[in-house]
Design brief:
Number of strands: 5
Number of domains: 1
Distance between the termini: 57 Å
Oligomer: single chain
Helix content: 40-55%
CATH class: Alpha Beta
Structural class: alpha+beta
CATH architecture: 2-Layer Sandwich
Order of helices and strands: HEEHEEEHHHHHH
CATH topology: Enolase-like, domain 1
Largest sheet: 3 strands, antiparallel
Length: 198
C-alpha cells in the first residue's frame, strides 16, 4: 500500500512530552494523531480506531486497532495491547481506563506508522539514523519487546503512585527481577526516593 509508505516516510512526531519521574521525553497518542492528519489529507486516506476488551490469561487487556484505508478501499491495520493497573494512586477508575486506552492506541499507531518508541531517548538513542534507513524493520515489533514496554509503563505508574518508602521498596522488589537493569526504571525509583529523604 503506497500511501502507508508515504506516511511512514514523511511522518514527524517528536517527543514533546516529559515524564519528570522517569526523567525521559515521550510522545503521546494525541501527538501522533496531530502529526498524521495532514498526511492523511495528502494521501486521501482515512484512519479509524476500534477498542476491544480481551482476556489474556487471567487479566483483561484493552486492545486498540487502527486501520488505514485508502480511497480505493484497500486497508491495513495494526493493534496494540495494554492492561489496567489494579490501582493507581490519585486516579479514579475512568482515568485509569483512559490512560490504558491511550497506551494501547499509541502502541498500535507506533506499529502502523513504523514509529520506533522502544529506546530510552537519553541512554540508547544512538541508533536513530539506522532506524530511519530501515523503516520497514522498525515496524516489525516483536511481542517480547512490546511486552517489555508494557511492563515498564506499568512499573513507572506504580513508582509514581507509591506513597511511602515502604511502598516504593515493595514496587522495586516486585519489578526488580525484570527491570533492575532498565535505566528508566532505576532513575524513576531514585527520583521518587528523594521525596522521602526530605
Amino acid at each position: 500500500m503506497k500511501e502507508l509508505l508515504i506516511i511512514q516516510q514523511k511522518l514527524n512526531a517528536p517527543k514533546t512530552q516529559f515524564n519528570k519521574f522517569g526523567n525521559y521525553a515521550y510522545r503521546s497518542c494525541e501527538d501522533i494523531l496531530m502529526a498524521v492528519k495532514p498526511l492523511l489529507a495528502e494521501t486521501e486516506c482515512t484512519l479509524t480506531c476500534t477498542d476491544d476488551i480481551v482476556l489474556v490469561g487471567d487479566r483483561f487487556y484493552l486492545k486498540a486497532t487502527y486501520t488505514l484505508t485508502n480511497k480505493d478501499g484497500k486497508a491495513v491495520s495494526a493493534t496494540g495491547f495494554a492492561r489496567e493497573q489494579e490501582k493507581v494512586s490519585g486516579q479514579i477508575e475512568a482515568q485509569i481506563t483512559g490512560a490504558t486506552s491511550s497506551y494501547s492506541r499509541k502502541y498500535a499507531l507506533n506499529a502502523l506508522f513504523a514509529i520506533d518508541d522502544n529506546k530510552d531517548p537519553d541512554a540508547t538513542n544512538t541508533h536513530g539514523k539506522d532506524a530511519e534507513k530501515t523503516p520497514k524493520k522498525a515496524a516489525t515489533t516483536s511481542a517480547k519487546t512490546e511486552g517489555d514496554n508494557l511492563l515498564l509503563q506499568e512499573a513507572l505508574q506504580a513508582v509514581e503512585g507509591a506513597k511511602s518508602r515502604d511502598e516504593l521498596t515493595a514496587v522495586y522488589n516486585k519489578y526488580a527481577k525484570s527491570l533492575k537493569l532498565d535505566k528508566t526504571f532505576v532513575a524513576a525509583c531514585k527520583t521518587k526516593a528523594t521525596e522521602y529523604a526530605k
